[in-house]
Design goal:
The protein is α+β, with helices and mostly antiparallel strands and 211 residues long. The chain has five helices and eight strands.
Amino acid sequence: MKKLDYKKEYKDLYQPKRAPSIIDVPEMVFIAVDGSGNPNTSPEYKAAMEMLYGLSFTIKMSKMNNTQPEGYFEYTVPPLEGLWYGSEVDFDGLNVTDKDKFRWISMIRQPEFVTEEVFKWAMDTLSAKKPELDLSKARYMRYTEGLCVQIMHIGSYDKEAESILKLKSFASEKGYKEDFSQGRYHHEIYLSDPRRCAVERLKTVIRHPIS
């Protein structure tokens, strides 16, 4: 059976062009971790990554010991994503002066067969394997992002402002306004591994809610 790669199968979600476009994002299933602080230095962010990837690969590799959930199919673990905000929910990714004040929801999409019961099973399984890992902040999340404007940003995370300004201008020209609110945030999808990719070639989907 062909392995499902969400990035290739759903190009509208993961492969936008370098010019802004409008998209209506449907409901998806995620494992998520809420936290705060600078992602470059925060122990909380590092722990979140360990939780997200640990749980995601526990589910993916369940086939190896014949404990795979009902409806399981071969797939590639989708990319890491982040919803970002600050003391105010209308953070738009511009004017970042103190990354220590970031608040974030880090998340990885899960296949459709991952239910709350499957998530709980993965939590128990990973906890037994790594009892030192505090999984209390991990949660199962169904998220419908709705109407958004998005763009592919190429380059450093610190140079996202140019792409964000294009988003804002495009949305306004098309008669939309940004609609940041509780549950609708500045959204980034990380298609490149910064440990293995030159900074100038990093690919990041930037997405803003609109109405």
